[in-house]
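Question (not urgent): is this output format expected?
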Amino acid sequence: MLKHTHTQQTCDGATLRDTVQTHLAKVLASPPFQNTVRLSDFLRYVVRRTLEGDGDQLKSYAIGVDVFGKPEGFDAASDTSVRVQARKLRARLDLYYATEGAHDPVRIVIPRGTYRPSFEMRGAVQPVTLAEQSPVKLHVGRFQNISGDPRYDYLAQGFEDDIRAALAQFRDLSVLSQPDRADFMVSGTVRSVDTLVRVAVQVESRADGAVVYTEKFRQAFTAKSLFDVQEDIAARVAARVVTTNGVLLSTQASRGDRQDAALNAHQCRLELASYLNDPTLAANVSLVQRLEREIRELPDRSSPLAILSVLYGDDVRASFCQRSEKANIRLSLDAAERAVALDPRNAVAHYALFCAQYHAGNFAGYRAAAERTLELNQSMPDAMASIAFYEAFLGDLDVALERMLRAFDLVSQPPPWYFGQMAILRYLREEYELGLDAINRVSTPFYNIKAPCKLAILGQLGPSEALEYTRREVLSDLRTYMDCTQRNARFYRIPTKTRLHMMSGIVKAGIKSLF
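Got this back:
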């Protein structure tokens, strides 16, 4: 599959083949592919067959025989060795493009579910400015097999590769092949007992030797589910370490690791993490003004635009009302589209884009951008939670619950808005007791809709002291709660049927209307 993206001129077939082959030689000579003869042969084989026009013939059986020396007639359905090597190959490619190949004009991609590579031709890539370079550098060290059985060495190697690949998906993080210049070291142990695998992971600061993160995972597996188990644990480790509520951001925020100069990608997420912990009007205005000023000075950076897009949306969600709803949606969409155009592989930019597309009413655009976000990074719990909320209002409550539970699974300390969204989702599923449990875990006003949400749930559950208390709270500032509820109903494009369902709980609680 030959895919041209952001190419300024069209190459003929011969030129394209030459370009890809030159790039392939560079990839195979890089540190991630040193001492990996089988993976190098694997990559060389699938690229050659695809360039020759035989990409459709790249099946497990052919690769097993031609690359790995399997005997004629081997059972490709039960022998998982080719899939194991394909997973390792994808991890090595992810690592290469997160490090040495970050700015290469060509990218070799082997999508999940196929062995046929695609070639992304990105044209000339401009050097990244100092302000956009990542200040956070990680090295993933060896994962030790402590099972006492060398047969499980492959298991430890698999977790090491998957965790390295999951971390490499974050654009504001550098995953280094050598530990010398790393800020943090990731290491771990793997123990396998029968069909149970235990993985212990820790992250250590090289500055002072402090262990900033440690966690143990225990999960059952079978031969067929082993890959899924490895990828699941790797995704959870990456989310706990890197995302908005992750330990790296928390550690650096507590140390005051911010700069007064231009915000780079990582500092943007530091600022966003601080804002989401206390989304006040003053914090929103201050951060928006700072980002707008810096974008005017340095207009070619993707991450600040993505964060700015989210903040424009929050002006509606939180009823700050600095601009009209239509103006915020337009500004949010424009910033997100510019962020994606500047860096098409920035998952945070695509996250901002799918949020903006949904609120603009472009549901096809929302789904395309959401799918692309998860393709680029499956360890983004905030994106998963946002997709869950949108899918709930689009009517797919099963998918919504699946995504929301996955978001919770990825983080060790879910932020308050996760519980608020879960409460609404449980309400829509008529699981009112579970909804009440979720809303009681919200420690903030949740954009002034915590009280109305709780009131609707309690109304469905029947008379109680809690119902009377919450009803009085809403009545004490009815106009504010009504404005916020109606504004969010418009912003989230809640359909009439869903509004009526939500309103029924409010009516049962003794209030005629909030919508």
